[in-house]
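haha ok so turns out i had the wrong file open the whole time. this is the CORRECT one, sorry everyone. sequence first:
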Amino acid sequence: MHRDFGLNDEQREVLGAVREFVADRAAPAAAGFEEKHEFPRDLFRQLGELGLCGIPYEERFGGVGQPFLTYLLVLEEIASGFVSLALSLSVHHLSAFGIHGFGSEALKTRYLPRLFSGEWLGAYALSEAGSGSDAASLSTRAERSGDGYRMTGTKRFISSAGEAELYLVMARTGGEGPKGISAFAVEKGWPGFEFGKPEEKMGWHASPMRELIFVGCDVPADNLVGEEGQGFTIALAALDSGRLGIAACSVGLAQTAFDAAVAFARERRQFGRPVIEFQGLQFMLAGMATQIEAARRLYREAARLRDAGQDYTIAASMAKLFASDMAMRVTTDAVQVHGGYGYMQEYPVERYMREAKALQIVEGTNQIQRMVIGRSLAGT
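then structure:
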């Protein structure tokens, strides 16, 4: 519809290159990687080679220095062809954001060039088995030990776990509550840092998810991100950005499901004519198109607030809430448009529907988003 509306020439040029990458490389490979439950490492490296792993960051660390909106536009395009790859890039951003925004110069110099080049994949570790939505109750501990910290505990539902080389880990260094939480940059391969078995998920099979298991992992003091007690602030700041990433991924996935539904409706004939000529189906497609366009404009306006240096927390929650709910509706309707064929794995829309469900859960469930928005309205 209006995917390039309001964008400048530079953004359109970037999107042109991304669309070519998605059409030629990412989209044709998506089903195969999903079927094999395999992370597309080569495709991720190619994102780095294209300069897409460090779009909104400083050039002195290997970033591209572009607006955050440009990064989200790229996420939408990638998600339209291979949502697991887009989600991996979104999670990668969460770890890079924390280090870039709060880390020491030494941490930035050590890790950001490798993250931005695509040489390293980043992951974000906040959730635990007993602290999902109630993230401030996390129990993983990082106790002072010699010149650093000794980390003990487990993290659950961690995307890219086992594949990523660097993890932004939130752990308790003080008392109960959010003020006792600190953030750490932890490398894969350090003694005492292990992984659980791969989770068997409904979708996103090419995006691995495992437990992180810390059994006395020694973390150097220099790998504290920010200051002690600042971890929950860092985690929430990253999630504000991440929620816009999920909104962009939702729009990309919904767009490709919609495109598939329109193409099928034009080809499928019943009662002597294409089914798209039936008013009932036209109305369904019209609603889908409108919802996609509304979600697209909502996340882009929120991104413009962020780029302007204004408070965008509520806008991000609204965008994530609306866009992910929209993606669930649109992908469900896309299956319905396909009729019996939509339930068959021969067509991709059943996969799109499974992939959309998790978008309502990650980066704060949509119930949490309603709480965030509601509390702002109540002034609490």
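Strands lie at 122-125, 141-145, 148-159, 166-172, 181-187, 193-195, 209-220, 224-225, 269-270, 273-274.
again sry for the mixup
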